[in-house]
Amino acid sequence: MLHSQKNTGLSPCNSVHYSMESPSVPDLSPLFQNFQSLPLEEMDKSSFLNRYDRKYVFHRSLLPLLLQQLYQDYELLAFRGAVCRSYSSDYYDTADNRTYFAHHRGRLNRFKIRRRHYLDTGDVFIEIKMKNNRGRTDKKRLPLYVSSLTDSPETDAHSKLSLPQDALLLPDFPEPFKSDVEAFLKKHLQMAPDDLRPVLHIEFQRLMLIHRQSAERCSIDFDLSYSRQSRNLSLPQLVVLERKSGRITTHTALDTALSQLRIKPTRFSKYCFGRSVCEPDLKQNLFLERNRKIHKIAGAL
User: Fold this and answer.
1) Count of CB atoms within 10 A of residue 38's CB?
2) Among 62, 117, 205, 263, which residue carries the largest CB count within 10 Å?
3) Is residue 149 part of a domain?
4) Tens digit of pLDDT for each residue in 129-174?
5) Domain tally for the chain?
6) Which residues are CB-contacts of 98 (< 8 A; sequence separation ≥ 6)?
7) For the domain that residue 142 is a member of, what is the CATH number?
8) Which of 201, 199, 224 has the alpha carbon at shortest distance from 279?
């Protein structure tokens, strides 16, 4: 069960509910027993903030078939024995939707800004995810709260402070969070908190596969849920897999398994998809064909 956010701080919009619920959601838990688990505290948390990404989107019915082929080469990241972890993200954009339109226009140098809450550990970060013209992703993170449970090198004085969970408007953050966010945005984007507003809330479950030998990780997101005020979208049958590697040419067992299942790489952004569905008045003609494919995958039997 995903946690819900009662107050999104978003501007009003018409009431729309769109769901692709299905009674046949495969149970994944028996497959987890085939994997060795890697405790979260043993993972190098500083790596893969700068990497190459490749995404795949497919129906959840294929996920058990994929996992069956990977347990000999990968470990499952675990926190307190649990390998499924819950995430919550609140995305920000400018009044003229600068980040959204940079993605819509296909700009090679672009970025996204979010507040990410790791619901299982309680950790909260402001994150800037930048993509350069060579296709490389560089993620910058500012810790707002880091639990001692994660034993992270990013743990600092904020570990003893608590940011109110309904604090979404960056200019309204209490001190010392507000000053730190201002400095963080200025350093990396030359922007101020007043330039940004919350535009989308996303929740999902994630599995994280760690390759035993090579520098590769794979995040598998499912049970996606979007909300923007009264607009809601639930996609229980959609799986978004992101392969993260230090080198763009690395070929591993994951590539072989995906190829055998005829799952092909695609361009997909959870953020852009959610905004285009929850804000139908936004210009989105360049996303229409891609969004239709997502609807078709998510609604497939």
Assistant:
1) 18
2) 117
3) yes
4) 988 777 678 889 999 888 755 555 444 444 445 565 556 778 778 7
5) 1
6) none
7) 2.40.320.10
8) 199
